[in-house]
Amino acid sequence: MQVIISEQALDWFKNELEVTSGDHVQFFARYGGCGNFQSGFSLGVTVKAPEEEAASVEKDGILFYVEKKDEWYFDGKDLKVTYDEEKQEVSYNYAD
Asked: pTM value?
């Protein structure tokens, strides 16, 4: 599994979550909501240091990651985070 962050998504995280070099952004499975990966679950995002990374990528000194305990949610597929110009927010999908 890989975490892929587009440059536009990186800018969104910097502006919306006010993260800077040295920060950590966690993607995690949460119960409820509507998500693209597992029925009955949705993707959560928080700024938090990792405990046990399953996959990660560093962009501009910011670590984006998924913990091992949430790896099941992605069903072995890569997480691709892009920016949706029309909605003006980030979008989470499986990588092609």
From this structure: 0.87
Task: Check if the beta carbon of residue 65 is closer than 8 Å to that of residue 55.
Answer: yes
Let me know: does 45 contact 60? Beta carbons within 8 Å: no
Give pLDDT tens digits for 18-46.
Answer: 999 999 999 998 754 455 555 556 788 99
Indicate the DSSP class of residue 3. Answer: E
Terminal Cα-to-Cα distance of the chain (whole angstroms): 12
Using the 8-state DSSP alphabet, how is residue 92 labeled? Answer: E
DSSP 35-82: -SSSTTEEEEEEE---SSEEEEEEETTEEEEEEGGGGGGGTTPPEEEE
Instruction: Specify whether the CB–CB gap between 9 and 85 falls below 8 A.
Output: no
